[in-house]
Amino acid sequence: MAIIEVAIPVPLHKTFDYQCNQKVVVGVRVKVPFTRKKVVGIVLTIKDKSNFKQLKSVEEVLDDKPILDKPILDFLFWSTKYYHHPIGEVISAALPKNLRLGKEAVIKKMADLPDKIQEPDFATTDEQNIAIEKILKSTHEYRGFLLHGITGSGKTEVYLRITQTMLDEGKQVLVLVPEIGLTPQMITRFESRLNTRIVAIHSQLNETQKLDAYLMAKNGKAGVVLGTRSAIFAPMPNLGLIIIDEEHDGSFKQQSSFRYSARDLCFIRAKQANIPLVLGTATPSLETLKNVIDKKITHLTLTKRAGDAVLPKVSLIDMQSNFTPQGGTEKSDNALSAVLIEKMRHYLAQEKQVMLFINRRGYAPVYFCKECGWKAQCTHCDSGMIYHRHINRLKCHHCGDEKMPAHTCPDCHQPSLEVFGYGTERLEETLSSYFSDVPIIRIDRDTTRRKKAFAEHLKQINSGKPCIIVGTQMLAKGHDFSNLAMVGVLDTDAGLLSLDFRATEHLAQLLIQVSGRAGRNAEQGEVVIQTRYPNHPIFNYVLSSRYIQFATELLKQRRSAKMPPFSHQALLCANAKNKQNAEDFLKKAGALLKNIQMDSVETWGPVANVIEKKSDYYYFNLYLQSTDRSALHQMLATFHQHINTIKPKSGVRWYLDVDPIE
Ligand code: ADP
Ligand code: ZN
Ligand code: ZN
């Protein structure tokens, strides 16, 4: 009779011992009694003694071979320690649902090997050659590379070539991308070029497909695993290379439950497997640039666009002076300047496509009374309600609540309600009054809710026929529209005025990414940015595509302010329906942290969240920051040991976010 230590998916920082009289190895799943239920857990150790008496018995051993092998278990242990998150929940995040539920670990449908693959009909450029050579030189050791190349410079081509070489050596390659559903082109390109099984791991698969993908990665049959952030946990026995595309993208950070950064975990996984890691982007994050400066990773650059493509011309439209019509016959309002409309006409007349970005869906962000100033607010959140015209509803984009708009003002009872501001829906409507004979394709979460809708829109755009594309930043990523001549960016100003210290970094990244969409073939494209703050320093850099110079400036500011990446942060967040209870919990937590006394760690708060109330819950934050990462983590570990001494009042939910990004 053995005693086994089992990880169970509960939010508790501990493991549980059971007796087991069946054959069992570390890493298999077991069904065990827990409270009054049966749950599926993972065997972490096998031992002959336990500190607990009267152990319950394992009900059933579900696997004969480990579901989680030692390398993955080590990786998960590291993650649980670093993020101070319970091991049971960390393991849950790493397993497909069907395995968590205890279903049999068998492949239903094995992916086919490709019939034939395409050979590229071009040679790699000198810059690509250098990048490929340097990466392939260290395939048998841990080394990080930043592959820094403007959009269209041939980064994906580099991924494909180094991946093929690794496959030829019998290795597997893990490729992480921000959002697969939005970049189906990436999968198609990998599939058409590589002679291996490629499995995709992302949220649009059904559970059977997810399990199959997981198991094909695990048995080594899949040469390439291409997935979104959770694919970082895919078991790959022959893992030889990790590629993370668009490394600066915020979606690599999980923002609920187990709050990990797949980008940061790539470093750990590559180190543990002793393999190279390639981070690709046109706009490196400040964290990654600092790694380059500290010589922790190697900087590889692709400075020219592949083929004949040239970078677009970027210009600003000053919305202060273009606010009112300036002569001419064109009518203008506050979303579209006359200059922008003129430029659109110019390109559309040449049978080209144009694209406009606006970062808000719905019709209008404000529904208000022009007599007394009343505004439609969500009753559950500290937030205005957004008017959606085609369904004639006011919607809260935080909690999803919706209601019919009233006809008269609830305060002054006048029929004086109006909308203010623009969302994609209203922009589409306004555009159709200017361009009645041009198709307008709107792409936002409302028009792509149906499963295939996004692909259908892409197909229409890829036909190359002239059209106006209106979209949110869903469109900024990775798409390659060959007949797109012009991109207009309508609302940069929110990013310039934001309180978030990362806002300008993200805005610069977005503007450069967006610019990358225009003119990807031989003709030069054009990018036009509307702003009320044309003198903001960010534009100096963005206009001339000097992202690195801008990022270097930002790094200087962060260094002198001791902000990340020059310091490390953690966030303790509490929320509750009772505002006082949430705040009180953090006050007690703050006192406990003060008691731990780490001079090098600063704490401040609790302070209310920027949006204090969401879905009837009040949110408060307590910040921890230190230039000494290990001191910060030691403090968090001690904090967890003593957390039981402060009992949160009932209804208080709290969590820790290590390296928060918002
Ligand atoms: P990125 O990933 O940096 O946006 P891609 O790898 O997608 O760039 O390359 C952009 C386009 O240029 C693609 O159509 C690709 O096939 C092509 N391309 C890449 N490298 C070369 C090359 N060396 N010569 C000619 N065309 C190339
Ligand atoms: Zn009113
Ligand atoms: Zn709400």
Descriptive overview:
The protein has 662 residues and is an alpha/beta fold. It folds into five domains: 2-100, PriA, 3(prime) DNA-binding domain (GIY-YIG endonuclease); 126-302, Rossmann fold (3-Layer(aba) Sandwich), CATH 3.40.50.300; 313-361 and 425-557, Rossmann fold, CATH 3.40.50.300; 365-420, no CATH class; 568-658, Alpha-Beta Plaits, CATH 3.30.70. It is 30% helix and 24% strand. It contains 18 helices and 27 strands. Strands 8-9-7-10-11-6-12 form a seven-stranded parallel beta sheet, sandwiched between helices. Strand 20 (440-443), helix 12 and strand 21 (468-471) form a beta-alpha-beta unit. Helix 17 (579-596) packs across helix 18 (629-642). The longest helix has 18 residues, at 579-596. It is globular and about 80 Å long. The two termini are 50 Å apart. The relative contact order is 0.09. The model is unreliable at 324-333 (pLDDT under 50). The structure holds adenosine-5'-diphosphate (ADP) and zinc ion (2 copies).
